[in-house]
Write a structure and sequence with these properties.
By secondary structure, the protein is of the alpha/beta class. It is built from eleven helices and 22 strands. Strands 6, 7, 8, 14, 15, 16, 17, 19 and 20 form a nine-stranded mixed β-sheet that branches. Helix 1 runs parallel beside helix 8. The longest helix is centred in the last third of the chain and has 16 residues. It is globular, with a radius of gyration of 21 Å. The two termini are 35 Å apart. The model has no long low-confidence stretch (mean pLDDT 96).
């Protein structure tokens, strides 16, 4: 089978990339070993969060580092056995979180964040997925006065970005979310972002749109990709598929393929969990609520209330555990009376992260026709369509809507 472009990975980034290339006249085949939207795209908190102006940086003050070193926090935990392997990456992450490189990362991510909602909107409409979307923003909740004061000051400093938000004291917070306990002393309600009640279903809706428009989705193993005389070839359930160009949009699975192709890009996976809970009679959560201090999100989903955890550093293929989820669940129940668990076991996902807190988007350095679009960290759902637009513009010879240099793979040597 021949086509013009192979897209490897059918998460939100890969499906969006296939759609953008298709819209520019490319004959695209989308390939994944699993169904669209069944990986990391399935299990996130469902936030299209244009309000996340500053990337998630590594803490640099000694007090916070000392607290995390005890490995008892709810927002981050680590497997001691994995630390020796992880240490070089953590050092890079720490270095890139210093004020100057963090400011660079913030500037780099802004052109993407500013367009994340507007790039989703036409796909949502074309895919008929409006029922999955809520345009009511999300709530950043605080339980500590000092932390809340710092958050309010930071929100006030973001005036240049034109973000709309409401500052809520305890009374206003409970007027907006009556079922919450009194543990929350205040919140910032970010009004511009949208939320998704079933992220996996949204990706599948986008994938159906791609197929309806003439695209092909085929099950195959991205690890079989190889360079041939006319471009690239991948083995699939329908036999080999060849194309001039191939895009790696594999999210957390990209690291394995990159090594096979000889690229030493420092991609690390931040693991995270979710669990769904029943809603008790008379109780409800109207908005997605992020407990910043505890590092979890409570999100109203089609499946129930989804509790998503923060960061776990462990080997990517290690079995999951419930340590972090249990810590978060205790705090979450102090905020909202969660019902019983719905899922038989916690879902485990992996966020593909780079130490300089920005994705890799653009051409590979040593292989003609090889393109990258991965490393979206905590913002895969948010940035999928807008980074897809950028890589499609580059591949099709258009003038990119923003300078792609900050995302080039060459920054890692």
């Amino acid at each position: 089978m021949q086509c013009q472009t192979l897209v490897l990975g059918a998460g939100i980034v890969g499906v969006s990339t296939a759609l953008h290339l298709q819209a520019r006249g490319r004959h695209v085949v989308l390939i994944d070993r699993d169904e669209p939207g069944s990986g990391t795209s399935h299990g996130n908190a469902g936030l299209i969060q244009c309000s996340s102006v500053t990337p998630y940086a590594f803490p640099r003050d000694l007090k916070t580092l000392a607290r995390y070193s005890l490995n008892r926090q709810s927002d981050m935990r680590f497997d001691w056995r994995y630390l020796p392997k992880l240490a070089p990456w953590l050092l890079q992450y720490w270095q890139q979180s210093a004020p100057t490189p963090l400011a660079d990362a913030t500037r780099a991510i802004q052109p993407l964040m500013q367009r994340c909602v507007s790039e989703h909107d036409p796909l949502i409409e074309a895919a008929g997925a409006q029922a999955l979307i809520r345009a009511e923003g999300w709530v950043e909740l605080y339980r500590d006065e000092t932390a809340f004061a710092a958050a309010k000051a930071e929100a006030a400093s973001l005036g240049a970005y034109g973000l709309a938000f409401d500052l809520l004291d305890r009374q206003q917070l409970h007027a907006r979310e009556p079922s919450l306990s009194q543990a929350g002393i205040g919140a910032i309600h970010w009004l511009d972002p949208k939320t998704v009640s079933n992220p996996g279903a949204l990706v599948r809706a986008y994938a159906r749109l791609f197929v309806q428009r003439g695209g092909q989705f085929i099950h195959g193993d991205a690890r079989s990709v190889r360079q041939i005389e006319t471009g690239w070839q991948v083995s699939t359930q329908r036999g080999p598929v060849a194309a001039k160009d191939v895009v790696i949009a594999l999210g957390p699975q990209a690291s394995e393929l990159l090594k096979l192709l000889g690229y030493a890009i420092p991609l690390e996976n931040k693991r995270g969990y979710h669990m769904h809970y029943r809603v008790r009679p008379g109780m409800q959560i109207r908005h997605s609520i992020c407990d910043v201090e505890a590092g979890f999100v409570l999100a109203p989903m089609d499946q129930g209330i989804r509790l998503t955890t923060g960061v776990e550093f462990a080997a990517s293929d290690d079995p999951g555990n419930e340590i972090q989820l249990r810590r978060c669940e205790v705090i979450a129940r102090s905020l909202f009376p969660l019902g019983e668990r719905i899922d038989r076991q916690p879902w485990l996902g992996r966020r593909p992260c780079l130490p300089d807190m920005r994705p890799v988007i653009g051409p590979a350095l040593r292989h003609e026709g090889l393109w990258f679009n991965f490393g979206h960290a905590h913002h895969g759902l948010t940035l999928g369509p807008v980074t897809a637009r950028l890589v499609a513009e580059m591949m099709c010879g258009e003038v990119p809507f923003t300078d792609p240099a900050p995302y080039n793979a060459g920054r890692f040597g």
